[in-house]
């Protein structure tokens, strides 16, 4: 009897790590400190008047939703996330804040044209360029009402300013690894372009902030956040880069030192735009 050898092709799907391990409260503090506001969209008075419907996608622990719901008690805020990190109904004291589990890569649980304002923030290295272009932006636009607003806070991925050699090597190697697994994301830089390409939004505005990883309390907080972020990639990158546990730890420590030595910075963008209302806007 012959011996049959069955070759099994093991197909491993590699994804960006879900940034669950990162405290979304840290993201909240850092973004709020950089801009000193909850949003740039000119919608404050509309929210104050009441009855506005607002959606926060990938809401994490729901900090943005809870803060806004408290400030604008006559409008309604909904946070959705693929994970269940947001507070349960029993722990929410506000009547105008709701949380639901929903994955933006599937289809959000809402009908077309439901919200006056759709917000998404701090989703660095979660979606690939293809997902941004083919799913995420389409969903944000779909659930927004004509004449409603969409706002995104995103980080650039293509480049840091004043990078040290160890950090530069990590980024370069990670870039090669990710593109070899179809995980490419330079969406931060291209968000306004992708939005424009959809042909359904107008009045696209973009504000840029430089993120320092050195110096004051804010710089140190950003550096700590970046280091946690790098740690979240250990499972994917350490072996690929030839590090054992200790080697990885030493490398990350070196990167941390470089951030302040080289005065490394990066770029964060806040983009907002209005969904075209065919009855009001010239299309
Ligand atoms: C770093 S947290 C940001 C939380 C929040 N936006 C903030 O600024 O505080 C990223 C969140 O994206 C969520 N997420 C990842 N993929 C998602 C998806 N496909 N649909 C919805 N949420 C997703 C994660 O579960 C995580 O809570």
The number of helices is 9
Helix content: 25-40%
CATH topology: Rossmann fold
Shape label: globular
Q: What small molecules accompany the polymer chains?
A: S-adenosylmethionine
GO biological process, one term: methylation
InterPro entries: Methyltransf_25, SAM-dependent_MTases_sf
Keywords: Methyltransferase, Transferase
Pfam families: Methyltransf_25 (PF13649)
What is the gist of this entry?
The protein has 283 residues and is of the alpha/beta class.
Outline the structure in words:
The chain is of the alpha/beta class and 283 residues long. It has a single domain, classed as Vaccinia Virus protein VP39 (Rossmann fold), CATH 3.40.50.150. It is 38% helix and 20% strand. Strands 3-2-1-4-5-7-6 form a 7-stranded mixed sheet, sandwiched between helices. β4 (115-121), α4 and β5 (144-155) form a beta-alpha-beta unit. α1 packs antiparallel against α7 (217-232), α4 (129-143) packs across α6 (187-198) and α7 packs antiparallel against α9. The structure holds S-adenosylmethionine (SAM).
Provide the descriptors you would attach to this structure in a database record:
single chain, 283 residues, alpha/beta, Rossmann fold, 7-stranded mixed beta sheet, 7 strands, globular, disordered N terminus, binds S-adenosylmethionine
Per-chain topology:
Blueprint: H1 24-35, H2 44-49, E1 53-57, H3 63-71, E2 76-81, E3 97-101, E4 115-121, H4 129-143, E5 144-155, H5 165-180, H6 187-198, E6 201-212, H7 217-232, H8 234-237, H9 245-261, E7 265-275
Parallel strand pairs: 1-2, 1-4, 2-3, 4-5
Antiparallel strand pairs: 5-7, 6-7
This protein binds S-adenosylmethionine (SAM).
């Amino acid at each position: 009897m012959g011996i049959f050898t069955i070759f099994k092709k093991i197909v491993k799907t590699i994804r960006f790590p879900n940034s669950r391990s990162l405290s979304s409260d840290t993201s909240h503090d850092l973004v709020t400190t950089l801009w000193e506001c909850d949003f740039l969209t000119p919608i404050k008075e509309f929210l104050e008047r009441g009855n506005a419907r607002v959606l926060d996608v990938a809401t994490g622990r729901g900090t943005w939703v809870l803060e806004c719901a408290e400030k604008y008690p006559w409008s309604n805020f909904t946070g959705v996330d693929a994970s269940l990190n947001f507070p349960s109904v029993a722990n929410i004291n506000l009547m105008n804040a709701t949380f639901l589990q929903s994955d933006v890569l599937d289809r959000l649980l809402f009908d077309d044209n439901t919200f006056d304002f759709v917000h998404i923030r701090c989703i660095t290295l979660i979606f690939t360029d293809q997902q941004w272009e083919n799913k995420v932006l389409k969903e944000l636009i779909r659930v927004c009402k004509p004449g409603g607003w969409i706002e995104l806070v995103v980080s650039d991925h293509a480049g840091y300013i004043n990078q040290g050699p160890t950090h530069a090597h990590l980024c370069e190697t990670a870039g090669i690894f990710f593109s070899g697994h179809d995980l490419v994301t330079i969406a931060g830089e291209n968000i306004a372009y992708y939005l424009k390409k959809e042909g359904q939004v107008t009045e696209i505005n973009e504000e840029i902030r430089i993120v320092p990883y050195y110096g004051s309390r804010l710089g140190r907080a950003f550096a700590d956040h970046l280091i946690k972020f790098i740690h979240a990639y250990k499972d994917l990158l350490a072996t690929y880069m030839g590090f054992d546990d200790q080697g990885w730890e030493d490398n990350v420590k070196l990167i941390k030192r470089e951030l302040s030595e080289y005065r490394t910075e990066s770029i964060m963008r806040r983009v907002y735009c209005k969904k075209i209302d065919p009855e009001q806007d010239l299309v």
